[in-house]
TrEMBL record:
<comment type="similarity">
    <text>Belongs to the ArsC family.</text>
</comment>
<dbReference type="InterPro" id="IPR006660">
    <property type="entry name" value="Arsenate_reductase-like"/>
</dbReference>
<dbReference type="Pfam" id="PF03960">
    <property type="entry name" value="ArsC"/>
</dbReference>
<protein>
    <submittedName>
        <fullName>Arsenate reductase</fullName>
    </submittedName>
</protein>
<dbReference type="InterPro" id="IPR036249">
    <property type="entry name" value="Thioredoxin-like_sf"/>
</dbReference>
Length: 99
């Protein structure tokens, strides 16, 4: 398994994501919705769960506030792993173990 120091880490709280980064992640993930965290406190506070959000909305909210990005996001060798569900974590571990 690769060592952590081989990864480029980005603390999105202090180093916000660029539009280009979010666009590239969405392309890899298949949509902006796939990157969006519906667990974010702001999602409920803003009443977004009661709205029908478009891809443009998901993109805008992710760019407006980092908590709307489902974290962590791991990108390695053209693969993207989004979030911390047990399934995603296992997929990431399996993929990274074979590098």
């Amino acid at each position: 398994m690769p060592q952590l120091e081989t990864f480029q880490l980005q603390d999105i709280k202090t180093e916000p994501m660029t539009v280009k980064q979010v666009e590239e992640m969405a392309q890899m993930a298949g949509s902006y919705e796939a990157l969006f965290s519906k667990r974010a406190t702001l999602y409920k506070e803003m009443g977004l769960k009661d709205e029908k959000l478009s891809e443009a909305d998901f993109k805008r909210y992710i760019l407006e506030h980092y908590t709307f990005l489902s974290r962590p996001v791991i990108i390695a060798d053209g693969q993207i792993f989004v979030g911390n569900s047990p399934k995603v974590v296992q997929q990431a571990i399996a993929f990274l173990s074979h590098e």
